[in-house]
Structure formats: structure tokens, C-alpha cells
Amino acid sequence: MTISPKDRIIFALDVPGVAEAARFTGLLKDHVGMFKIGLELFVACGPQIIKAVRENGGRGIFLDLKFHDIPETVRGAMKSASSLGVDLITVHTSDGQAMMKAAVEAAGASKVLGVTVLTSLSADAFPEAGIDKSFTPASLVLHRAKSAKAAGCAGIVSSGQEARAIRDSFGPDFLIVTPGVRSADDAAGDQKRVVTPFEAIKNGADYIVVGRPIRNAPDPVEAAKRIAGDIEKAG
Q: What is the DSSP letter of 8?
């Protein structure tokens, strides 16, 4: 199935409450394909934020809570999360397949994505994080993506810098969602491994997560349209 350029955009609702979330959902509902609800918004508002986003026009919802706990705890959390009717839910890949398998088994109709290596993490921070020095960001992402696929995850979350290698390794049906997306003239902020919308899609990403470049733009709708245009150029 062909996905339109605008539907490849997941807008990150990294806002403090329902009012701002509702405003951006209403403003962007015809210009992006999905809305991401992350830790900040979900902790502030609870499950009712999903209903509020949907009522304001949010068709697709990506619940990005990055579950990371013992398998049975993750199983219970995933069962509760999937009952909210969201499309995508994240779980960390760093603790191996047992936790991810529990998440997949409890996910119902929701698709589970394994978070590989956060885009805020660079190779310089690997020793502090206890990651073996033999790994590079690219090799660690591939290692964890392989584990996620074996556990039954529908796909992974990774930087666009690793998207080509993942696509080549795991084929067209393994979802790749890329955060840390910045236009060429945007500041990287707290992200380390960033790509442009064009680069992410060209490298094989199915969806890109965009927050600040749209949210902080003078005209968020025009910013979303411009990003959709970059996606279209990438084919």
C-alpha cells in the first residue's frame, strides 16, 4: 500500500497539557498522518489524552512510552495500553527478547516497535552507559533490531543514519520509524544522530517523527507541508 508523503509524518505532541495537544491536533490533522503521545503528555494527562486527541481529529496515534521492565510487568502495561486503541506502542530492546515477546503477546491489534538506540546517544557515551566498546551506533542498532524482529515486533525506532542498513537487512515489511529529524537549517538541540526528512525517507524509513521543526515554526501548517514536500522528493 502506497503511503502519501504527509501520512509519513508523525507529529510529536511534546506539549504540557490537553489544551495545547487539542490545538495542534486540530491544526495539523489534515497535514500529518499520526500523532505521537510521549511520556511528558501521558504522565500529565493520563489515558484521557488519547480520547482528546482522537476527538480533535487524530486518526493515528503512536503511544511512545518506551516500556522497560520485567516481562510480566511489561505484559500487563502493554495490555492496558493496547486497550486504548492506539496504533503503535514502543518498548525498549536493550533487555533482550523475553520482555519484547511479552509485549507483543499482549499488544492485541496495536503494533509493537522496539526502541533500538536513542537518537540522543552518541558513541562517546557508550562506555558510561555500559555498552561494549566493540559496538558502534550502527552495529548496536542492527543487533537490537535483529532481536526485536525475532521477538515478533512489527518494527523498530532508530535514527535515519541506520535506516538503510536496517532496510537492507530486514526487508520491506519491517517498520522503521525515525525520530531526531531536523531540516537542514534547524538546530539539532538535544539530539546527536539527526537526519533531514529527505535523508530519512531516502534511507528507508517508513515514518518520521517531527516535533520542534513544526511546533516552533511561525506557521506549523506550512512547516508540515514543506516537510511533506521533502518526503515526496525522496520518493
A: G
From the CB of residue 128, how many other CB atoms can be counted at a distance below 10 Å? 8
Of 146, 80, 85, 143, residue with least CA distance to 110: 85
CATH assignment at residue 195:
3.20.20.70
What's the rounded Cα separation, in Å, for the pair 55 and 58? 7
Q: How many domains does the chain have?
A: 1
Q: Residues 91, 67: contact at Cβ < 8 Å?
A: yes
| Phi and psi, residue 12, nearest 5° | -80, 115
User: 146-196 pLDDT, tens per residue?
Assistant: 999 999 999 999 988 899 999 999 999 999 999 978 765 554 444 455 689
Residue 117 confidence (pLDDT): 82
Q: Which domain holds residue 213?
A: 6-234
**Count of CB atoms within 10 A of residue 98's CB?**
13
The answer to whether residue 144 sits within a structural domain is yes
Tell me, yes or no, whether 1 lies in a domain.
no
Q: Residue 48 falls within a domain, yes or no?
A: yes
Q: State the CB neighbour count (10 A cutoff) for residue 127.
A: 10
Residue 55: count other Cβ atoms within 10 Å of its Cβ. 11
User: Which pTM value belongs to this model?
Assistant: 0.90
- Flag whether 51 is in a domain: yes
Which of the residues are catalytic?
66
As given in the structure block, the three cell numbers for residue 9 are 509524518
